[in-house]
Every structure is written in structure tokens, then in C-alpha cells.
Amino acid sequence: MGYQAWLTAYLAKLSGKEVRCPECGVGAVNWKLAGDPATRFGYAILWCSHCGKGSHLSRVKFPEGIEFVSMFDVDAVAAGVPEIQLVDED
Does the predicted model carry a pTM greater than 0.85? Predict the structure, then answer.
């Protein structure tokens, strides 16, 4: 599947949809959003709860109403994020 599929999953989650893994189709897509509170720019880590694959999206802007942790708080960013196998870019 690759990066583009994970980007699509990210956009679907932003709109509040439940998203299945673009790799295995079984597990739910989880995410951790981390950014600069002043600019709302940051990155997203997405992963599948079933197969453990995922992606890292950088330089994303979080809309108002979307919660994220400060990217300057390393412990908050790492909390709850499992080790994942990053997918190849398309």
C-alpha cells in the first residue's frame, strides 16, 4: 500500500472516521499527533493495532479542535506509541 494510503487514513481520521489499516485491513489505525503549540504544525505517527505497520507524516497542520501533544515533550510524544514497522514510500 504505502505512504499515500496512510496519508488517506490520516485525512479520514481528521474528519472523525474510524479507519482500518491500509496494509492488513483488519486492525484499527491509531495515531499520535505531536506539534508546536504556537503554530499547530507538527507530525503524525500512525500505526495498525493488528499488524504493527505504520507511517510517519511530517509537516502537517492540525486544525482547531484536533488535540495533540507538544513535540517538545519527549515523554508525552513517546507515551503509548508502540514500536512499528514503517511502510515504504510509494
Answer: yes
